[in-house]
């Protein structure tokens, strides 16, 4: 079972990433782009994810993953129930979402310094 503390340090440590609180909700940004956001009760983690792969992710485990609200379907976004994720899985989702908003050279540099992933 993952909790927000499992990814809090990671979100602040990734290159160009920083945490912000918007209306009481923790979000991680690179520049003005939000790539991870938590619900007010910290039970749901929204994260950047390719639109074309969303249906497969949600369909593969609907207990764990849900589509975003109708107004957010136009974005590269999906939701995950934190309690259904393992801590390692939550960290991997954060890193993958971060990769969507940073230059490829930063993503490659992360791989070189973290060969075993965010584990």
Automatic annotation (TrEMBL):
Source organism, top-level taxon: Bacteria
Official protein name in the record: MmcQ/YjbR family DNA-binding protein
Stored InterPro entries: YjbR/MT2646/Rv2570-like (IPR058532)
